[in-house]
Specification:
The complex is a heterodimer of chains A (224) and B (211). Helices cover 83% and strands 0% of the residues of chain A. Chain A is elongated and about 55 Å long. By secondary structure, chain B is an alpha/beta fold. Chain B is built from 6 helices and 9 strands, in the order βββαββαβαααβαββ. In chain B, α3 packs parallel to α5 and α4 packs across α5. The radius of gyration of chain B is 17 Å and the shape is globular. Classes of the chains: A mainly alpha (224), B alpha/beta (211). Chains A and B meet through α1, α4 and α5 of A and α2 and α3 of B.
Chain lengths: 224, 211
């Protein structure tokens, strides 16, 4: 029964995202902008860009991931849907996990798909592109989950726009370190399994624990 | 719907921020009964309804559903409850049909085939496929009320259900509440205007500012 309900929720969220597709494009444009600005601001020397590329792409991905986060639960909170979700028999943890999944599908995944293009812009060699992609594929869901915890806690606040990145970005430092490091190691031909395994471990940890924190945050935000 | 059900709350102490809204409030609602919460603006009607729904917690006191405190009857209570808050819980980009089918799936109610009937019953059948954002406030309220028709909850908690409803909307809601009570349901609502029921009496619980 829960699976039917959750499938319906995902379908509704995707429907909504489709009708508001303008909002969906903003983080992507942001990602493209930030990565495209670096070659303009720095010395356009391919060798320099290549070494900077992992860090630039990862930082841009983190920033782009935070852009649309504020709205994750905001409209549900304002139009009363959140109350209905809390009062439904479906566990709120699962509802939260599904919401994060759809959020990642419409913001995180397109970003991962765009990453090779931005990599080419920064003269990142195709041989190391696979590592960059796997890293982003493991890291961006973590960012969505962490961001959802922050969004759930701040949903009741009127101006949470700037607060949210301040809360989330410090927590995202480990995925930045391991993600950017794995891509940099691939560049020099080192064995990248270490940082990628660590990213996978962080993902497993957040997938299991974050839904409880999100649900708790939502309940607290609704209490007054 | 269960044969008999009862909601009672005992010696509730309710605070909102640093205001003491009520002290030692107790009342009981059993199958077939309607309770109207009455009080001035800011007297705590919404807070009380949210506490009865389990969205907020009282400072002290207990709310029991079928003899068990809410904290223990979690899932069973959520299945037995239909809640209508200040906000309608409708996505403005989606049509009433899309909104309600998400609700039906979420509450585990049988297939969505009854949605057109429910919308027609509330007089918004023609709007079934337009975005909710393009409808008037009253029509949105009616769409939200259609959830009551679809749900098989035995307890209705309605916060200002009459907001933006026209005269025919008010009598429609009265009919719905009557039918619900006749099937052994409970309705608790906060309204400023009395809701006249033809066949049942409505008990009033007064909320005043506590000393």
């Amino acid at each position: 029964m829960n699976s039917v309900a959750l499938a319906a929720l995902v379908r509704r969220d995707l429907q909504l995202a489709y009708r508001r597709r303008g909002e969906m494009v903003t983080p992507l444009m942001f990602f493209i902008m930030v990565t495209a600005l670096f070659p303009l601001g720095l010395n356009p020397d391919p060798a320099l860009l290549r070494t900077l590329a992992p860090g630039v792409i990862w930082v841009a991905a983190l920033l782009a991931g935070v852009v649309g986060l504020e709205s994750l639960f905001k409209s549900d909170y304002e139009d009363g849907t959140l109350e209905l979700m809390v009062l439904s028999p479906v566990p709120l943890e699962l509802v939260a996990l599904m919401r994060v999944l759809t959020h990642w599908l419409i913001t995180g995944l397109p970003l991962v798909i765009l990453a090779p293009l931005m990599g080419m812009l920064l003269a990142f060699p195709p041989s190391a592109m696979g590592t960059l992609l796997i890293g982003l594929l493991l890291g961006t869901p973590v960012l969505s989950l962490l961001g959802a915890v922050g969004a759930a806690l701040t949903v009741g606040l009127r101006r949470s726009g700037m607060l949210l990145p301040l809360l989330i970005l410090p927590l995202a430092v480990p995925i930045l370190i391991f993600g950017a490091r794995s891509a940099a190691m691939a560049l020099t031909g080192d064995d990248v399994s270490g940082p990628l395994y660590l990213l996978a471990a962080i993902l497993a940890l957040t997938v299991t624990l974050a839904p409880f924190a999100i649900a708790g945050g939502l309940r607290v935000s609704l209490e007054n | 719907m269960t044969a008999s059900c009862a909601l009672y709350c005992e010696s509730l102490d309710i605070w909102r921020g640093n205001r003491h809204l009520c002290h030692g409030l107790s009342f009981r609602a059993e199958a077939g009964q309607a309770v109207r919460l009455h009080g001035a603006n800011g007297a705590g009607k919404t807070t009380l309804i949210r506490i009865l729904a389990g969205l907020s917690l009282p400072e002290s006191g207990t709310v029991c559903w079928n003899g068990r405190p809410l904290a223990e009857s979690g899932d069973e209570y959520r299945r037995a409850l239909a809640y209508l808050g200040h906000a309608n819980g409708l996505k403005s980009n989606l049509s009433p049909t899309e909104n309600l089918s998400a609700y039906v799936a979420m509450m585990g109610l049988p297939p969505a085939s009854s949605i057109p009937d429910a919308l027609a019953r509330l007089g918004v059948g023609e709007m079934a496929h337009r975005p909710c954002g393009s409808m008037s406030m009253g029509q949105q309220r009616r769409t939200a009320l259609a959830r009551l028709v679809l749900s098989r909850a035995s307890l209705w908690l309605l916060d200002e259900p009459l907001t933006s409803l026209d005269v025919s909307g008010v009598s429609l809601l009265a009919e719905l509440v009557e039918a619900h009570l006749e099937q052994g349901g409970i309705a608790i609502f906060a309204t400023h205007q009395p809701l006249e029921l033809a066949r049942q009496t409505v008990r009033t619980v007064n909320l005043g500012i506590a000393a």
